[in-house]
């Protein structure tokens, strides 16, 4: 490997020879690109070493199949993981450029919706940090998750244009292309069944190296882009029919054109199924090619290949692997099923019925005529092997992807202890009964490099000064902070770190949105996708009641609080979009109330994404994790807040349960019904009305909304929301309100005791080390993949 020149030299060399600019004329983007190439050079060194080592050892490989990777920016991640921060800052200072502005010039790679996509990105970084040979497979969407704008408080979606700027972190692989077929027919000749697709597109690979801590290892994220086999119809062009001439290319690109922006509701669109098969088939072609290069017998596959299905979205991998083994490699069907199951494992990320994928059999059969045959045979074989089975993966003219994934996996996991138990007693109750050792738990985690070291350098510095830097890839070392938490002077420094982060955020909000807030207010933050089960409307109801209480008792010593919201709603999810509008309308009234606005303010920051989370979380005092118990599979934002010293106000839902166990009940503001109590409360007639009658604050807040107080021009603007809450209130906003109010008043009191609060915050940091995605990945490696580290 060539000697690595100083970063300064590589930056200048790339600026001149890769970007073609001299320092005098270089613009911000040029410097970002030059610095990115210089850092990428060093990532490539680690990458090549890792690739060679994996080949020479013949080690088992992990393949992570996901329709989403919510990556965010990559330059700072590369700099931090290669410990180049000081050098990079020195180089940029010398070039009279602000490193912060250079880093912020990079567009987010927003190839995901929310939790599932971000988890995949954290997992890729942890796989490299622990030195586990792995590939991530996904789709190189030209347009990621839409850009959110507010127009008169309403969400407006704009196409996301990350590729309109040069992208420094991918390598196009024109030589890595696979044909992906759709439609057509199936025939069987001399006992061999053949699928004859009607149309074909090509999947072309784009590789992004994913480097781990200290650059000791780097794995590949391979994203597929749709290409036409015959991109241009010259004959049509010569006849002046230009659109038909360009049609083949346009059609093929449609497959990887845009990410579906739904994160809980299956739309059942054909293009989505085509995207899922496109990703899965290309990945399996690549996996089998790489296996064939090293190993001879496909029966060895489970020994050398572990394939993780990130939810059911790539579940077609089961039938496709069986098709390749049976139709093309002539392995007997049941043996093909066993080999495939030996490789496959499936993670479930939600219990919401509307999020469990099931495809209409005619759409599925038309697009994948051979696969539906194979699924029917898998279903029949599974029924044969489990005579007491009652539920099928092929019922009411649907193809149930959850049932199929479970049947075709050797391990199935949930993403928090509570969620995994609920899987066994709800959606997979019968399958769990039939296969009692198949479901295991792997509680989610987050990478401490991005979500502490990089986004909160002040806190990271304070921690490293106290306990050394071992925590960065061994996060449970944070518990070594406990003695420091007892030291008042250290706690003051801890509080000062948070105060400086809040001041920095306040300045940024002033510059960016002309929003002026007092950094000494309690920064109460709820950032996540908009959804009724996440209950952003419970949060704003409490704000309205709080506002009313301050107006009625301005003399009381209120703890000044700033409520910050961030989150996108799926474009077709109108109720969620109305909650966004309500929050913006309430903010407009409350923030301009001279009596109360020094005690309570509400802001909804637009276009919440990974980079905004990195800005907000280090400056947060309170983490809102208020979902209806039993609905949030895990949550991962909750872990990021705890690590960054923001105690949680939350329900016993998802990973909140384990966070509270680790940080201590005394350092967690618990409220609300448990998952069991939720089930019982639902059975209570008019549970919402009863809750409203029992709580005048709640009643008053609902009446204010219903009266049009926040929508003077259109009094009935939110009658759908008040109607729902006073009626069905399926997510029990009203029934949990009183206890939520109680918890929030406890927060007020606790925050007023600065030292007490600092102790709670610091203990959240010290005791959240277990929520590292390194720990999670090591769990998958030992309990599911049987894969080891090569470090
Ligand atoms: C078919 C449309 C669709 C798309 C995405 C349905 C469901 C999804 C995802 C499963 C939704 C999701 O992001 N789930 C979140 O996954 C996180 C990572 O495990 C969890 O922490 C969150 O609790 C869960 O809501």
UniProtKB/TrEMBL annotation:
Catalysed reaction(s) here are: [(1->4)-alpha-D-glucosyl](n) + phosphate = [(1->4)-alpha-D-glucosyl](n-1) + alpha-D-glucose 1-phosphate
The protein's required cofactors: pyridoxal 5'-phosphate
Q: What is its EC number?
A: 2.4.1.1
CDD domains linked to this entry:
GT35_Glycogen_Phosphorylase
According to the UniProt record, list the residues that bear N6-(pyridoxal phosphate)lysine.
Answer: 640
Q: Which domain of life is it from?
A: Bacteria
GO BP of this protein: glycogen catabolic process
Q: Name one GO cellular component term.
A: cytoplasm
Q: What is its main location?
A: cytoplasm
- Function of the protein: Phosphorylase is an important allosteric enzyme in carbohydrate metabolism. Enzymes from different sources differ in their regulatory mechanisms and in their natural substrates. However, all known phosphorylases share catalytic and structural properties.
Question: What is the protein name stated in its UniProt record?
Answer: Alpha-1,4 glucan phosphorylase
Species of origin reads Salipiger mucosus DSM 16094
């Amino acid at each position: 490997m060539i000697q690595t020149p100083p970063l300064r030299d590589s930056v200048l060399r790339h600026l001149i020879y890769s970007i073609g600019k001299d320092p005098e004329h270089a613009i911000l983007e040029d410097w970002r690109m030059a610095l990115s190439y210089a850092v990428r050079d060093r990532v490539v060194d680690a990458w090549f070493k890792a690739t060679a080592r994996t080949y020479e050892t013949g080690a088992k490989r992990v393949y992570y199949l996901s329709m989403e990777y919510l990556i965010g920016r990559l330059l700072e991640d590369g700099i931090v993981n290669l410990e180049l921060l000081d050098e990079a800052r020195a180089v940029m200072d010398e070039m009279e450029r602000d490193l912060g502005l250079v880093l912020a010039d990079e567009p987010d790679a927003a190839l995901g919706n929310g939790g599932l996509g971000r988890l995949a990105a954290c997992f890729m970084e942890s796989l490299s940090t622990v030195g586990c040979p792995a590939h991530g497979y996904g789709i190189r969407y030209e347009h990621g998750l839409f850009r959110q704008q507010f127009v008169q408080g309403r969400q407006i979606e704009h196409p996301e244009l990350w590729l309109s700027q040069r992208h420094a972190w991918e390598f196009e692989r024109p030589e890595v292309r696979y044909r992906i077929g759709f439609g057509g027919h199936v025939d069987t000749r001399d006992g061999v069944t053949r699928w004859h697709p009607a149309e074909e597109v090509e999947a072309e690979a784009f590789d992004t190296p994913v480097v781990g801590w200290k650059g000791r290892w780097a794995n590949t994220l391979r994203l597929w882009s749709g290409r036409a086999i015959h991109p241009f119809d010259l004959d049509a062009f010569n006849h002046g029919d230009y659109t038909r001439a360009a049609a083949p290319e346009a059609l093929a690109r449609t497959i990887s054109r845009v990410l579906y922006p739904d994160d809980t509701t299956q739309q059942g669109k054909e293009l989505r199924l085509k995207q899922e098969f496109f990703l899965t088939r290309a990945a399996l072609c690549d996996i089998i090619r790489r296996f064939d290069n090293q190993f001879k017998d496909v029966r060895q596959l489970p020994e050398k290949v572990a394939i993780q299905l990130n939810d059911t979205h790539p579940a077609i991998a089961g039938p496709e692997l069986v098709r390749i083994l049976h139709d093309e490699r002539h392995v007997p069907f049941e043996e093909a099923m066993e080999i495939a199951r030996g490789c496959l494992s499936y993670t479930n990320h939600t219990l919401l019925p509307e999020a469990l994928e099931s495809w209409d059999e005619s759409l599925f059969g038309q697009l994948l005529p051979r696969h539906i045959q194979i699924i029917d045979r898998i279903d029949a074989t599974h029924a044969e092997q489990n005579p007491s089975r009652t539920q099928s993966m092929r019922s009411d003219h649907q193809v149930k992807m959850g049932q199929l994934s479970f049947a075709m996996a050797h391990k199935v996991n949930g993403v928090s202890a509570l969620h995994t138990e609920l899987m066994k007693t709800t959606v997979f109750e019968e399958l769990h009964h039939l296969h009692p050792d198949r479901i295991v738990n792997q509680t989610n985690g987050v990478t401490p490099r991005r979500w502490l070291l990089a986004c909160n350098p002040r806190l990271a510095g304070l921690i490293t000064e106290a306990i050394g830097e071992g925590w960065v890839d061994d996060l449970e070392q944070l518990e070594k902070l406990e003695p420091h938490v007892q030291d008042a002077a250290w706690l003051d420094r801890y509080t000062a770190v948070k105060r400086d982060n809040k001041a920095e955020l306040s300045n940024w909000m002033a510059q960016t949105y002309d929003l002026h807030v007092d950094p000494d207010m309690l920064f109460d933050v709820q950032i996540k996708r908009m959804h009724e089960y996440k209950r952003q409307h419970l949060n704003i109801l409490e704000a309205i009641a709080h506002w009313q209480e301050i107006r009625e008792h301005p003399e009381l010593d209120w703890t000044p609080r700033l409520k910050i919201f961030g989150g996108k709603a799926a474009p077709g999810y109108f109720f969620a979009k109305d909650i966004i509008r309500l929050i913006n309308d309430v903010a407009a009234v409350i923030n301009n109330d001279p009596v109360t606005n020094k005690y309570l303010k509400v802001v909804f920051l637009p276009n919440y994404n990974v980079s905004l989370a990195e800005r907000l979380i280090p400056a947060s005092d309170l983490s809102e994790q208020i979902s209806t118990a039993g609905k949030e599979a895990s949550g991962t934002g909750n872990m990021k807040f705890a690590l960054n010293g923001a105690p949680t106000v939350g329900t016993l839902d998802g990973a909140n349960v384990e966070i509270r166990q680790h940080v201590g009940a005394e350092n967690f503001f618990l409220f609300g019904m448990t998952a069991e109590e939720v089930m019982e409360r639902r059975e209570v007639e008019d549970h919402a009305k009863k809750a409203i009658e029992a709580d005048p604050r709640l009643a008053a807040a609902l009446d204010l909304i219903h009266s049009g107080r926040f929508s003077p021009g259109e009094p009935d603007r939110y009658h759908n929301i008040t109607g729902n809450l006073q009626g069905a209130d399926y997510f029990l906003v009203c029934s949990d309100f009183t206890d939520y109010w109680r918890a929030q008043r406890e927060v007020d009191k606790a925050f007023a005791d600065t030292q007490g609060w600092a102790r709670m915050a610091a203990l959240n940091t010290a005791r959240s080390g277990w929520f590292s995605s390194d720990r999670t990945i090591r769990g998958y490696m030992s309990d599911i993949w049987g894969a080891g580290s090569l470090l």
